Amino acid sequence: MSIDGLILAAGCSERAGTFKPSFDLGGKALLIRSIESMRLVCDGIVVVGGCRFPELEALLAALPDIILVRNARYKQGMFSSVQAGLRKITGDAFFLLPGDQPLVKEETLRAMAAADAEIVVPRFRGKKGHPVFFRAGCIPEILALPDKEILRNYIHTKADVRILDVEDPGINLDADTPGDLEKMRDYFLEQAPKKEDLV
Description:
The protein has about 200 residues and is an alpha/beta fold. It has helices at about 30-40, 55-60, 80-85, 105-115, 140-145, 150-155, 180-190, 195-199; strands spanning about 5-10, 25, 30, 45-50, 65-70, 95-100, 120-125, 125-130, 130-135, 160-165.
């Protein structure tokens, strides 16, 4: 089964106080960290941009294998970005990840991909999170919906949805505010291998 990653990075980061994709997380941009996490399990990666698109282009200039899609309708909301990215998905399945959630564990992604369901939603200690895993058969249905739809509403219409409990705080670590970004940085530093662990 081929799997793609669809990463959403079209917002303007207004509440975060900085352009989130460029936020320094352990010496690399937050968006690059998100891409790296998806690379662990994905054959191809699509990033959808909108606001401050030239900055995204510059950020990803050294990654020519990443497909960067410009959503001119990003102000319509996140669903329009989902649809813009889905038109470039070619795999049998895909992960949908907000660009500000770079700390999902590899074992979480692999467990989701192995689950026998059309849609898989991770849950940590009772709270659902991201990414969400979709089989490619969902793509035509999602593209047929109005671009102001809410993806959660679509998921609720589907019968074959699995909620997968995982031991992974990263599925709920996003960055809407400056405080969120600092919590994310702290968690990243806590999880980073210590020098003595590498000896």
